[in-house]
Amino acid sequence: MSRNFHLVNLTPTQGQQIDMRARISHIGSMPLSLPASTSLKLLPFPPHPNPLRPLPTALAQTRTALVTGSRGSVIVPVPSFCSLHLEGSTKSISVEPLSAALSQTGVGAVPPKPNTTEEAPPVKVRLQVENSGLKTQRAQWGLTRALLANAVHGVTEGHSLVLRLVGVGYRAAVEADPFPAPDAIEQAILQVSGGSAPSSSSSSTSTPATAATSISGSNWLNRDQVELYRQLVASEDGGSQAGSGKDTKKVPQRLNLRLGYSHPIVMPVPRGIECATPAPNRIVLRGNDKAAVGLFASQIRRWRRPEPYKGKGIFVGDETIRLKTAKNK
């Protein structure tokens, strides 16, 4: 069987248009809207999600984007080949040291509002890559833009998930954690600081010599990285309000689940996540980091995955399951 292949001659203009369309990330090229109450800073070192372990190779060539809003701060990794540009201007968001970034807004602090009574319009920011012809850069282009958009939404409005407990006797309750344990970031900070707890009053300035050198005996890259996470922990844990004398430190909580086992299931609520039970069979999770909220929801769901015969289990959001018909012998 013979096949006839027809070649279509394209003019240079048509060929360039087709090539350009193939090299544009539709999600990555969309402008990112930053409200007036939100700030975006680029730091010259990569983020470290778990300082008790070595830095993943995927994050070695990245920088830290610190998104701060009215609800707090979120850290987003930005690849080194990505750059942020203000729409309608030749200016770009440049990388600045931690001391300069914290001197303007601070971690977890609300950016200063303009003196005018009218609300300032949001700033449009576009994300660009060095070579859009590379598949890896196009993939990171859209992913980074989506992560930044989730961070902006998280620090302004927050992310929430509702979990439904379906089953006889399935109950959930939030209670104070009498034995709170430090997480990986707290343990790594305590190892570097010699056992002193993170404090919001610690100095945020560091000399270039200490910022550039790595910390021996730990997985931290430099002192600025430690200081950033120390202030994040202090802002999420809360503290005393200046001038009011009131202690607003958050009490560690845990989630007590009754899911048909012979023993209750106790899960500590991670830092940065608010957990509430408006009904015994309903759990509401809320936080600034969308990935952290979804991860904690998946950990809760793991104890009772929805089963297809009776429809019992823990359902996340609008999750549904198709019931199966039992085989009758």
UniProtKB/TrEMBL annotation:
One GO term (biological process): translation
Organism listed in the record: Tilletia horrida
Family: Belongs to the universal ribosomal protein uL6 family.
Domain Large ribosomal subunit protein uL6 alpha-beta as annotated: residue spans: 253-314
PROSITE patterns: RIBOSOMAL_L6_1
Keywords attached to this entry: Ribonucleoprotein, Ribosomal protein
Region entry Disordered, spans: 194-216
A Pfam family annotated for this UniProt entry: Ribosomal_L6
Gene for this chain: MRPL6
PANTHER family per UniProt: 60S/50S RIBOSOMAL PROTEIN L6/L9, LARGE RIBOSOMAL SUBUNIT PROTEIN UL6M
One GO cellular component term: mitochondrial large ribosomal subunit
InterPro entries: Ribosomal_uL6-like, Ribosomal_uL6-like_a/b-dom_sf, Ribosomal_uL6_a/b-dom, Ribosomal_uL6_CS
Record-level Gene Ontology MF annotations: rRNA binding; structural constituent of ribosome
Name this protein carries in UniProt: 54S ribosomal protein L6 mitochondrial
Origin: domain of life: Eukaryota
